TrEMBL record:
Key word DNA damage present: no
One Pfam family recorded for the sequence: RNA_pol_Rpb2_7
Catalytic activity, as annotated: RNA(n) + a ribonucleoside 5'-triphosphate = RNA(n+1) + diphosphate
Annotated spans, Disordered: 899-967
Keywords per UniProt: DNA-directed RNA polymerase, Nucleotidyltransferase, Nucleus, Transcription, Transferase
Function comment: DNA-dependent RNA polymerase catalyzes the transcription of DNA into RNA using the four ribonucleoside triphosphates as substrates.
Protein name: DNA-directed RNA polymerase subunit beta
Gene Ontology biological process: DNA-templated transcription
A single Gene Ontology CC term: RNA polymerase I complex
Species this chain originates from: Giardia intestinalis (strain ATCC 50803 / WB clone C6) (Giardia lamblia)
Amino acid sequence: MTLCLTDLPTEDIDDLKICNQKKDHKDNRWRRKLSPRHTGYTSQFNENFNTEAVSAHVNSFNDFIDSLNTTIIKHAPAIVINLSTSKAIKVEIVNLTIKPPSFTPAFARETRANYCGPLHVTLKVSDGPMSKTVVINAGDVPVMVGSKLCLLHGKTREERIRLREDERDAGGYFISNGQDKVVRLYLDCLSNTPLAFTKYRSLSTISEFAPAGVHYKGVREDGHVYSTVIQARKDNFLSVKFTIDGRYIYVPLILVLRALVSTTDKEIYSTICTICASAHPKEDGYVSLRVEAMLRDFHKYRIFSHKACKQLLGGKFRMILSLLDRYDLTDVDCCDLLFEQYLLINIPKEDTRAKFNMMCLMARKCLLLFGSFIKPDSPDLLSSQEALTPGAFFKAEVTSTLIKIMRLVSRNATSTGAIGSYELSNSWISHYIASPKLWRPLSSGLRSLAGPGVMRAYKGHDYSNMSGLSVLADRINYVRFLAHFRCINRGNAFATHKITSIRKLYPESYGFQCAVHTPDGAPCGILTHLCYKATVLSSTPTTDQIANLFILLAQFGLSPSLSDIYSLCVVLNGTILGYLDTNERAIQLVACIRAAKVKSIIFPYTEVVFIEKGNKDHLFPGIYMNTSMGRFYRPVHSLTNNSPEYITPLEQIFLQIAIYGDDVRLGVTTHQEITPTSLLSILGLLVPFSDHNQSPRNMYECQMLKQTMGIPCRNLAYKYDTKSYLLTTPQKPLVRNAIIHDIGGFDTHPTGTNLVVAVSAYTSYDMEDAALINKASLERGLFHGTVYSVHDIDCYDDKLMRYMRTVATAVPYLKRSPDYIVTHMDENYDTELDEDGLPPVGAYLSHGSVFYQTYDPTKQCYSTKLYHHEPGFVEKVIVIHKSAAKGEYWTDNDIATKKKRDSSFPAGDSNSSNLDNDASDDEISNQPGSGSESNEDNQTATPRSHASKAERKSSRQLQTRARTESSSLHFIQRVRIVIRHDRTPVVGDKVASRHGQKGIMGIRWRQTDMPFTSSGIVPDLIINPHAFPSRMTVGMLIESLASKIGVHYADFVDSSPFQWSDERRAIDVFGEQLLKTGQFNRYGSEVMYSAITGDPMPADIFIGVVYYQRLRHMVSDKYQVRAEGPSDKITKQPIKGRKRGGGLRFGEMERDALLAHGAMASLRGRLCTESDATEHVVCAACGSLLGMQLGGSVCRECKATGHGRLIQIPMVLLVLANDLAAMGVRMRFNVSLVE
């Protein structure tokens, strides 16, 4: 029933095609055209599918690498040390270089290392004409796999295989401690755009401030981030908020404007009142009155000159900016430094006029928001958000850390005063500036970002307190790993919010955020995923494209100065370029810009939005263009230019986009969707017939698809995740969405099996989502799987080792004791350890078996470690050595070439777990052909075959000798052991279809008792029909029909959504095809016969083929039972947690159930005698539980004697009585009936 076209011989395929051509098919659009020759990938496969899916991560990191010696060096702070006793000494950073790692990602995973490259900082210390260059090693920096620094960059598919990598792995992640970590896309407000908010994290909640402000997140080209905020006060005045080292300082707006440029009150008044002004007299009058009031209020300071304003601000901020020791800086210089670092930092410091104009625009927008003339921007809309990529985080971390380091250098130089001349400063340079400890925060901060996902550089503003940015890129299956790179995270803090505005899917999110791919529960709507065609901008325009844009603007008469006529501002990347006069001219300009985008005359990803004056939506007018990285974009078809065009969520609001051709209205519609499926993500598109299912079921399937066992990767033998899952007999789905399945090549990593499924209430074992499984199908290998767990053995810690070396103390190492006795043995398996103290490959470890032995030279004793995990077989043993000379880790793979060339070395070592890898594959060069002669077919450890015991013993001796010889220089102290656990399906394991129909295996039913069809087909699974009415998964029923056609013609069937309509229904198309076969019913039902009586069943049974998936949720991982075990030290109750040996919670609802049944003895047993029962003495005179002790006769409260009663109570009651007594509450107990 699972025959496919690509699995048939060529001559059989030709016969089928000839037979099919003779039949008259009126509707063959559901048929797919496939190459008859199987090559692993179909002809529709897109080689760049994975590369495009992870492009936002890889390209952003490449941009970070490119910016190290361009924009970051350009804006790197340079300090000038000018003491009264010496000449001025200048310290500046001239070069930042990250070198490629010296080993491959596979080697980093194997040795639990960080995939990093050394960061070198080049400093230039100059004293007049003399200068000195210092190169400092700042530590190891994480390198993204797949980036231009990765050793896999540019490698072909064959070369990736030789390097022990998945041939389709495009990178986009980091390797931290041997684990793959991905920094997810993080949502934040738009950069370089003034946004008007009524409630946002940057707005003050102090009583004197009104809930109205304009937030401008400035992002410099080097990645440095700082936000400028103008907020309205309740007295109608405006203040500028500065956030410096966690301190909030509010400065009057007029003072900032007067300090920026040499201006007058009239110019300030006219600029704020004229810029983007509308013809509404009430709006203009409101703004003019507020500006006049602010100007009058500023006159009380008696400051009238530009220089006086700068001196005032510089004097006030000198201490805040930590410039008290900079005697060479005047107050004016301090003010300039303030504006450069903390005011609209994306605008160059020399262009103060541009900052002045933008501050006036923000002031007008804030006043209009405060007066309710415009609508506020919502921080929850995607049009007000952008994605922070890994490259953006790295750039921000580096720039912020460099600022801090240079501040420390300046303070140290001033405090020590040790610089008398250039010659005398050499010691200061070598001992302080060139100290790696000073520059180590650069690398440690980046490692913290790539590993735990914590942003450490920014404190007090913007990216402060950001954590959970990176997650483990687990490979439960292929699509789960791919989904990590399409994920958009709003932040863990939002998951606890009980409001729906942050979780809604707004219209501007169409085509950018998937409508169904979001988890249920707390992160619903917070953790979303990009649609298939959407991505994040990670490139910048070229110089020619920017020049062409300026030429285009000049052709439309862009005025550089503001006037009453030219008042409509044109903004590019947060900077006002000029002004236009009328809305008509602006419409023409925007149309020309869109035409230039399509032809790539200008940057094709330029965002251009025009909001006309006097619009009915109460939006702030202007022409806004942006080319900043981090913006979302997707392609649509432009009807005006008849070609694809990239748009952003903000542009989408102002465009008329049709989905189908029938929806196009002449003169109104501007664009059309390229495909109706553009609203779904990659995982959402994998659901067959998703337009026939209830929407929550598609959401559930997106989550269950990421929990399915399958083929996670092609290099599973070299993956060392904590737990890996493998489905033994996966199959290609007969029914698949042709729009993405073959393009993405998902057949290379299948996730399920085609089953014959019957819908019938056959027994009572199929209630509540349980299903009957054919026992014979299970015995043939259905749903069989394997779980691999990795156990790390480390005899010492590196920090402890460094200390122990100083005291010349030996450390423990792995070794078997001479008097070791076999603790467990049967006819097939044994747990005898090898001479190195490790279990041999193929050994069976059960609970309580000896795992390994170590020897402590200091104590001169052996210690034995027992195995307390799930039973399994030793699949692989990897020995990691520490070389004192090299100071680096290496494995037995590094000496494989030497061993294979040694004629005296036994030839039977091919079964060894770690001796068959070529060192040239880990320490490779950049030549494409490096490592081509290595034999990679024998790298993995082969399980021990259950041959004769003599053969097994000989094989163990060969493995032991190999490991012993490889560790001749150093003892074995670090080992990784891979254990294989066979997971045969059992009752209670979870399975699911691709339509959110999840359930468990109810019972393993014998095939002789299963019903069968007239052709002898016996179902593999029987599902209860009650699973369909409430869940409305009609797509699963249609899949069953379509699969029967695919089986009959030995071909795949297309199930892409949105290709059906009321005139062309799926059930009619597939029903007609079933009738033409002459073997099936139109609606998929068939007569089935009882296996018990042999008579036909009175009703027809719906039966077909459905693609089912086995989920990772298995009884072996979840069952929990205990008789005795650890308990809490205070309450004496059993602890919780399966891993800790805890018990099951007996909660309130369980208690209510026993109360309803009147089972008092059982209730007392659960809550007292079998839990935390204890004997205690209570005073019958005063009823005190705390007054008497065991063995005592006098009550400490009432002083009565002889009234003690021994009772049995739960220990938690005694704890409660003590807690209440500490709060002054006394409990009394009536024990008069206690004998």
